[in-house]
Amino acid sequence: MESKENIAIHCENISKEFATKGKKIRVIDNLTLNIYDNEFVVLYGPGQCGKTTIINILSGLESPSTGEVYQKNEKVMGPGPQRAVVYQSISLFPWLTVMGNVEFGLRAAGIETSKRRQRAQELIDLVGLHGFENAFPNSLSGGMQQRVGIARAYCIAPSILFMDEPFGALDAQTRYMMEQEIIRINSKEKRTILFVTNNIEEAIYLADRIIVLNNCPTSIKKEYKVEWGKPRDYTDKKFLDLREEITSIVDETP
Amino acid sequence: MEKLKLEVRHNFIVIEYALIAIVGFLGIWYLTTTFTNIGKLVPNPIQVLTFFFRSFVVPIGGNTIQEHALISLGRVLIGYSVGVALGIASGIGMARSMLFEAIFKPLFEVIRPIPTIAWIPLAILWFGIGEMPKYFIIFYGAYANVTINTYAAAKSVNPTLLGAARMLGMKEEDLLLHIVLPSSIPQIFAGMQSGLSASWMGVIAAEMVKSNNGIGWVIIMGQESANTVQILAGMLVIAIMGFLMATGMRILEGRLCSWNQKKI
């Protein structure tokens, strides 16, 4: 499965430094990463350091201090619809309805109204928001808003989807539900996904492969393949064992 | 349902008290002017209302009172629309272009504390005594407020929203119209509201200084002929029109910014 041809996105030796108050802070240190087609990869790491920056660099929103990012042999130079992002802050356009938000990318691409409406409606139905097409984001709950965020990202049919702690702002109950939902949605509209979280259960529940990160500067500590089928059971022995193992290596980090 | 009932009940109480306050005010006004010496200086409300209604048919100077009101309103509409349009353009220009900002922001900081009416003498010297100085004053009241609010709004557009639009494939040149402008609308509207009251104050003041008609002129003529009733009737027209304009703006805001309202 892992040959060079089916690498969806690839970065080599990327580092990122920020200058604050005259001091240089290294946020990412020599990160080399391959994400393969149709893989669900979870970046798991504690703390606030570096994970969002990795997403920003891979999606093209920020450029790395050193190193380069390639998507299918093409260098990533800036943000674009081949690399969609679902944000932790949800970040819907509040002046547009649910439909307006979901069809936004297709409108920017100049797709004619009837075609893009049809596609957007499919996605709205898929994420379970049928009947809310004309609602404004402000009138929806946090979980429903993030469903719109997910539909908006899927709608442009990107080759890779970045999800930056998308359920971090939701309450625990809604979070469990959304984790199940993302498995269901991704089985209907198969995409390559890079998902960032600081929640270990979420990581094991979702991932084909978990990449455990060191904290500050961020680098790769260890990788785990999670090869048993989805949906998974949180109380399964395999689940609990893996959870304990990952937790133990993360706890060593100062 | 219970909540709705409470709300209706609450609105009812608000209207009830508003009526009691207005009727009470008129009552006290009537009683004090009729039974004390204040009546020698201030006419009673019945005299004012009689004059007000009579002026709909009997002209003050060359025009009836509703014509004066419409003349003032017409001036406001012209100066105000130009002020709003240019204000939105300048505000966005200042927020999006470093050069524009560097040049015009300090100028605005200096000019901003000068009240609209302080421009009247200059406006008359520059533009003569016709309609132009009035348009200028009204324009300025709207322009200053709308520019500053638009600038502040366009300057503080959520960068994640701009990133999201780029990520979804929007071109740089389309961000202004599709992201910056709509996300600034609520604050632009706040500027339009304060701009409208500045314009309205400006036209009354300008008409009081130099004019042949308009509500400001009605009031200043009342002063020159020591006609307190006419002054108070003019003030009544200003109050009614100010109220109508504010209500109109609120309705328009509800339409334009419905997405900005939190769910109940």
Features:
heterodimer, A: 254 residues, alpha/beta, Rossmann fold, four-stranded antiparallel beta sheet, 8 helices, globular, B: 264 residues, mainly alpha, MetI-like fold, 10 helices, 79% helix, 0% strand, flat
Describe this structure in words.
- The complex is a heterodimer of chains A (254) and B (264).
- The longest helix of chain A has 17 residues, at 172-188.
- Chain A has 254 residues and is of the alpha/beta class.
- Chain A has helices at residues 51-59, 98-102, 104-108, 113-126, 142-155, 172-188, 200-206, 237-251; strands spanning 7-20, 23-36, 40-44, 66-71, 74-75, 83-86, 160-164, 192-197, 209-213, 220-225.
- Chain A contains eight helices and ten strands.
- A six-stranded mixed β-sheet of chain A has the order 6-7-8-3-9-10, with helices on both faces. In chain A, strands 2-1-4-5 form a four-stranded antiparallel β-sheet, covered by helices on one side.
- Chain A is 34% helix and 26% strand.
- Chain A has a domain at 4-82 and 158-251: 3-Layer(aba) Sandwich (Rossmann fold), CATH 3.40.50.
- Chain B is mainly alpha-helical and 264 residues long.
- Chain B has one domain (66-260): MetI-like (MetI-like fold, Orthogonal Bundle).
- In chain B, 79% of the residues lie in helices and 0% in strands.
- Chain B has helices at 2-35, 45-54, 65-96, 98-111, 120-127, 132-155, 159-167, 172-209, 215-224, 228-256.
- In chain B, helix 2 packs across helix 10 (228-256).
- The model of chain B has no long low-confidence stretch (mean pLDDT 90).
- Chain A binds chain B through residues 59, 61, 78-81, 83-85, 87, 89, 91, 93-96, 104-105, 108-109, 136-139, 152, 156, and chain B through 158, 160-161, 163-171, 174, 179, 182-183, 185, 258-263.
